């Protein structure tokens, strides 16, 4: 269900800067594109979303949506005039209104007559599978039901930009897949920014992934490329991969502390190129003594902690992670503080160019 009232435009172009929060973010979206924004807590994601929604006025902002200036050039449109809808992890429904009136509130605020607003509300409630809950108040709804109603309320305003800030974080794990499927359907052809910590949200819903760290964009690319070929520490962590940063020297990646790693470059990498080595923990072997034999990368490391991982153990170290069997962990008698040698074949290491100035790049 899409609106016929908003002309097709050029999408979103935004630059947000806040000195107090040390945030300087630039972002673009094509019309109808869904972009997932990932990053650790405190990275600047909430600053981005609230500034786009008009709820936070940063030191500097330049925001243009479908040809309309929302901020910049002396302009600062208030939230209700932006054509932007924000859905957070808490539904934040009005407790004194039933579901129908909660959804109708958005259109009514935009000047739509009461009857037309209620009709729009009932259409959206039906489209999201909760028409039978129209007369219930928020206290009578489950978490999943309340989030469906909140989504209907956001979409009933026919926004030109939809902002989803951790929309499934507060839901029971049994409900999240259902809401994810629903979002996949209703977000088709909608210009959407999805802030999430869950890699499944990005895989299921996003055309692109933007990774934010320390108030800056550190990765931006197609979803599967970012999640399979990460170039930032956070990107690697959410993808369950190891990432080692350095720069190229004589055809190898060399870290700032002198560790040299052989691998397969994804493209020509001249000497001096900031580079990251990406490897799956499943391809990393753990030894108590340095092994010999065929050409392999060997890295001395100290175990920081051990985590169960199904029928395996995730061995976390100060260099990289390894995933080994329970039997191997028991045989090696591993524990935090143990010095080990991590070994990985060069053929299992992918070398990718890193952004200039990436942490660890020499």
From TrEMBL:
Source superkingdom? Bacteria
Q: Which residues form the Mop domain?
A: 292-353
**PROSITE patterns recorded:** ABC_TRANSPORTER_1, ABC_TRANSPORTER_2, MOP
Single Gene Ontology MF annotation = ATP binding
Q: Give the coiled coil ranges.
A: none
* SUPFAM superfamilies linked: MOP-like, P-loop containing nucleoside triphosphate hydrolases
Q: Which UniProt keywords apply?
A: ATP-binding, Cell inner membrane, Cell membrane, Membrane, Molybdenum, Nucleotide-binding, Translocase, Transport
Could you tell me what this protein is called?
Answer: ATP-binding cassette domain-containing protein
Phylogenetic placement of the source organism:
Bacteria, Bacillati, Actinomycetota, Actinomycetes, Propionibacteriales
């Amino acid at each position: 269900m899409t609106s016929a009232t908003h002309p097709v435009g050029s999408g979103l172009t935004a630059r947000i800067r806040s000195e107090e929060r040390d945030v300087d973010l630039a972002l673009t979206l094509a019309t109808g594109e869904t972009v997932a924004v990932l990053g650790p807590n405190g990275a600047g994601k909430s600053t981005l979303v609230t500034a786009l929604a008009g709820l936070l006025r940063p030191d500097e902002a330049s925001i243009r949506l479908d040809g309309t200036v929302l901020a910049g050039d002396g302009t600062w449109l208030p939230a209700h005039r932006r054509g932007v809808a924000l859905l957070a992890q808490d539904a934040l429904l009005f407790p004194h209104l039933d579901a129908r009136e909660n959804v109708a509130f958005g259109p009514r605020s935009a000047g739509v007559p009461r009857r037309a607003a209620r009709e729009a509300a009932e259409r959206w409630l039906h489209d999201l599978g909760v028409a039978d809950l129209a007369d219930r108040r928020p206290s009578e709804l489950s978490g999943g039901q309340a989030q469906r109603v909140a989504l209907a309320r956001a979409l009933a305003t026919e926004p030109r930009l939809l902002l989803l800030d951790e929309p499934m974080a507060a839901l029971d794990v049994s409900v999240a897949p259902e809401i994810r499927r629903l979002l996949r359907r209703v977000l088709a052809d909608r210009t959407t920014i999805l802030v999430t910590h869950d890699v499944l949200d990005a895989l299921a819903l996003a055309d692109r992934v933007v990774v934010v760290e320390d108030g800056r964009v550190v990765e931006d690319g197609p979803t599967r490329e970012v999640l399979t070929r990460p170039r930032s520490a956070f990107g690697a962590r959410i993808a369950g991969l190891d990432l080692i940063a350095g720069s190229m020297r004589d055809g190898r990646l060399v870290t700032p502390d002198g560790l040299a790693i052989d691998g397969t470059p994804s493209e020509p990498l001249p000497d001096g190129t900031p580079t990251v080595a990406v490897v799956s923990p499943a391809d990393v072997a753990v030894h108590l003594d340095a092994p010999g034999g065929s050409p392999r990368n060997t890295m001395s490391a100290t175990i920081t902690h051990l985590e169960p991982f199904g029928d395996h153990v995730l061995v976390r170290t100060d260099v990289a992670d390894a995933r080994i069997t329970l039997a191997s962990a028991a045989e090696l008698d591993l524990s935090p503080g143990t010095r080990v040698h991590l070994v990985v074949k060069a053929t299992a290491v992918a070398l990718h160019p890193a952004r200039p100035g990436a942490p660890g790049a020499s």
